[in-house]
Amino acid sequence: MMEALEREIILSHQLNSNKEQIIETIYFGGGTPSLLHKRDIEELLFTIKNSYAVNPSTEITLEANPDDVTVGKLNNWRDAGINRLSIGIQSFKEADLEWMNRVHTASEAMACIQMTKEAGFNNFSIDLIYGTPALSDDEWHENVKKVLALEVPHIACYALTVEPGTALKKMIGLNKKADVDPDDQARQFLLLMKWMRDAGYEHYEISNFSKPGFRSRHNSSYWKGDLYIGIGPSAHSYNGIARKWNIANNALYIQSIKNNVIPFEEEILTKSRQLNEYIMTSLRTIEGLDLKMIENKFSESEKGRIENETKKYLDKDLMIRKEQNLILTDEGKLFADGIASDLFTGF
Question: For residue 222, what are the contacts with CB-CB under 8 A and spacing of at least 6?
Fold first, then answer.
């Protein structure tokens, strides 16, 4: 697989129409990248830097689970060039972790963060889940207070979603586990926003909070609509006008790369699809939807249409307007997807 990944990096540059593209962020995610050896990471980064122009201050993130983190691995990741970690903590409450079928324990989650800081990673993020049946409001507050006490620079928080076809969905259907309550999730999200704001964190995207200067540069690029290149099975790429995704089958992926062919499917984005994606992503951010940008990139009529359709949300205090930007309020963030969908265009 390593050989195929390195080969795809080289092929992707050869096929890239934007040869001068400068790499600002690199993200080792999906699956279990924390299982990569130090030498693997070094070789992949070497190939990227040999193929592309890479900014010296590039943010290089690696995803890890708490049970994968050891002092030795942390030192190896740092020495290999990783300068940011994203750790899937989920909860500091044992019953919560058991309900979600997580492998790690609450004590491992705490130890993992301490080790990360001691290893010299001052830029890292943790994930937390709220809205599970096993989590009361007080327990949710205790989870958040632990994050604040540990001075975690970035936190990504998500309401638990039960996906169809999963073991969890089946257990709920058999009444072996309690189902989630949307009202509980909404309340805990509102509480979270207040607690994080009071602690001085920037709520820069619906699910993401950071201390000043610690926004995820990589994830921010998605919300801004920047171009990106995905490497490996199932990886997604975006070049401004089309989205591509590699096939998921490892064996077919490797065989295709051996034949110097990147195996992907592609969707060309229409103007209306580009606008709808911008509406969806921009409303999730602290900057909000830029009406001037819509006028310049799409049309004055689309700007006018959106202005008219957002009046009801402004009147209900679900949205505010700051000059040319429309920004969701805390209450509005509870309905972000629905509001975005209502503003979609079909031109």
Answer: 228, 281
